[in-house]
Write a structure and sequence with these properties.
With 269 residues, this protein is an alpha/beta fold. The chain contains eight helices and nine strands. The radius of gyration is 18 Å and the shape is globular.
Length: 269
């Protein structure tokens, strides 16, 4: 069942499928170094591939960013393509992956039923209009194909630390990528559960000071209700925690596989 907030998605706060609080063209140059680098990318790619059938021959990675994960999705017999809405990100990805297109995840330039798998790592938590992104993934999947996506991304950072205790009263329960929401959108387009796994966000354990800085930059806007003076108060509380520069436990991210029925007709546009 879809709740009220699930029936009124808009793209108002999204520019070409990505969050407008960050300039991804500018961020592309430092993105890998600040997101766990190769160890995190390898863990994410291994998780995705564990859910992609051995029979798959073409995979599209939407919101591919710099291509650090995408380039690790290859295996014998599987052709990998990437798509991202940021020109800066797409340029970097093109240096790593042979087939990269500049494209919005909600308007993919592919024909119906043209790939065997679609992956989305750390994308849907940024997209208020997740319904349309899921619909597009379903549209381009062949019968029997799978959509593999991270869900509940921000919840993965809740590791029971003192940071989590400070932020808990301000968490929103309306994350764009919550699993039940994505599964409901998928079901509406003929995709059903086909497995799940988890991976560790290597190098992404948060320190209080780093969390405070991210909060003030608006990076938790889709997860926390704190704004303005409240955000400043929270940042001060975080910075006052013991060992403010010591990272807490690394997050664990959840990945779902959603399969298109092998007998289904092309999903509705």
């Amino acid at each position: 069942m879809l709740h009220d907030d699930d029936t009124c998605d808009t793209a108002g706060s999204v520019s070409a499928g990505r969050n407008t609080f960050l300039d991804h063209d500018v961020e592309a140059a430092v993105y890998d170094a600040t997101r766990g680098g190769a160890p995190r990318a390898a863990a994410a790619a291994a998780a995705v591939l564990s859910l992609v059938p051995d029979t798959a021959r073409a995979l599209l990675d939407i919101g591919c960013g710099t291509g650090l994960v995408t380039e690790r999705l290859g295996r014998p017999g599987l052709r990998v393509l990437g798509a991202d809405s940021s020109p800066g990100m797409a340029r970097m990805a093109a240096g790593r992956v042979e087939g990269v297109v500049l494209a919005d995840a909600r308007r993919l330039p592919l024909p119906d039923a043209s790939v065997d798998a679609v992956s989305a790592v750390w994308l849907l938590h940024l997209v208020p209009d997740a319904r349309t992104a899921v619909a597009e993934a379903a549209r381009v999947l062949r019968p029997g194909g799978v959509f593999v996506t991270t869900v509940d991304k921000d919840a993965g950072h809740d590791v029971g630390s003192d940071i989590d205790a400070v932020l808990a009263p301000y968490r929103t329960a309306r994350a764009y990528d919550r699993a039940a929401r994505i599964e409901a959108f998928a079901a509406a387009h003929g995709l059903g559960p086909a497995g799940e796994t988890h991976f560790t966000g290597h190098g992404l354990g948060r320190s209080p000071r780093r969390t405070a800085q991210a909060l003030l930059r608006g990076e938790y806007a889709s997860r926390l209700t704190a704004r303005g003076a409240v955000a400043e108060k929270l940042a001060a509380e975080l910075s006052a925690l013991p060992e403010p520069d010591e990272p807490r436990a690394e997050p664990r991210y959840r990945v779902l596989a959603l399969r298109r029925s092998s007998a289904s007709s092309p999903p509705p546009h």
